[in-house]
Specification:
Length: 175
């Protein structure tokens, strides 16, 4: 089941590598919470994508956007991801339950062995997604994919936020 814009977002709760639980219901951003679902430590495309996200965190913060990157990875893998990919300053969540991922409309894949970077894929993991959630807990926008390729570019999301905030642009796709 996929959540639609202008409707309540599903519940979301994960642990973070900072040792704090992260709950969507606790977020109080000025404008949006941005949830970036990545495939996990095994994904070299995710590494490039999250490094780019890290470069844009201050841009999002300046626009009143609270950011988290999360996956179904274990704590150990999430900690390694943050350290090896040099993501200090980016909130990294781990242990996303498959059922929660599916409630958000994320696609689920089964592991196929080691990837090109020599890291074993988990037995089951989420495919990528990006979600903007309003402070009232309703979904504003969503991008999901069945593959690791062709994700929204963060510089474009930043530019879109400028238009959204300037024009009070409504959420679309609610039907």
């Amino acid at each position: 089941m996929t959540v639609k814009p202008r409707t309540p977002a599903p519940s979301l709760e994960v642990e973070t590598v900072d040792g704090e639980p992260w709950r969507l219901s606790d977020r109080r951003p000025a404008n949006f919470t941005m949830i970036v679902a990545y495939r996990g430590q095994h994904c070299p495309i995710c590494k490039t994508y999250l490094k780019d996200l890290r470069r844009h965190v201050d841009d999002f913060t300046a626009r009143g956007v609270d950011v988290i990157a999360l996956s179904t990875d274990s704590e150990e893998r999430a900690r390694a991801t943050r350290e090896e990919w040099e993501l200090a300053g980016l909130t990294i969540g781990y242990g996303l339950p498959i059922e929660q991922a599916q409630a958000w409309g994320l696609y689920i894949s089964s592991g196929r062995g080691k990837t090109s970077v020599g890291i074993e894929e988990p037995a089951r993991f989420n495919e990528p997604g990006l979600f903007l959630v309003r402070p009232d807990g309703t979904l504003y926008a969503a991008w999901t994919a069945t593959m690791p390729f062709a994700r929204p570019h963060f510089r474009e999301v930043v530019a879109a936020l400028d238009v959204i905030l300037e024009r009070n642009y409504p959420a679309r796709g609610e039907l």
